[in-house]
Amino acid sequence: MTASHSSRPESNPFSTRCVRPGALPYFFPPGETIDSVLERLIANDWRGQILGPHGSGKSTLLATLLPRIEQHGMRIILAELHDGRRRMPETVPLPWKARPTLRHPCSTAAPGREQPLSTADPPSILVIDGYEQLPWWRRRLVQWQCGRHDVGLLVTAHRPIGLPAVFHTQTDPATFRHVVARLLEGQAECPTDEEINRCLERHAPNLREALFELYDLFESRREC
Asked: What would the mean pLDDT of 78-91 be, rounded to a whole number?
């Protein structure tokens, strides 16, 4: 390893831990803020969709938005659906599923029909990242159940799925360069502007794939 390399941190600034949702805030275009997104969600009774192409920052926006939703007293129920996931994970505590209850010794209700001891739960919102992984009939069922039980619903998708639009994620060279500059803060050696632009041209609008290519580029130079 050369002397110039020895002063650099060992970690790759484009590694998964650096670019995963929540590691960086979502960078909004002019005229948009996290508050404007939240206001649209509230105005639609906590129902909405975040739309955008694959790799355009929908999950990152969610990670930025969820703490603000919690500040409004909402209980968040998060479900992350990856490629091939055709149903809701069993570990997601859906509000309309039966909850464990304690049977009072003097109860006359039939076993299994008791009511929960407390119904003073905070208002809930079901957040589904990757909503379109579900078949259409499961999506309909989820929306119906949320409406029936007065549960909010916020989803991410690549195309409209019948909920009010609260934000459209978009990719452009300025945003990509902003993200890259933030990741490269403190680095002694950086990709050139030409290399960064080529990565975006090859993968646009998928910023995630462009960042993966920069990871490989950074690794190849570290090994020299």
From this structure: 84
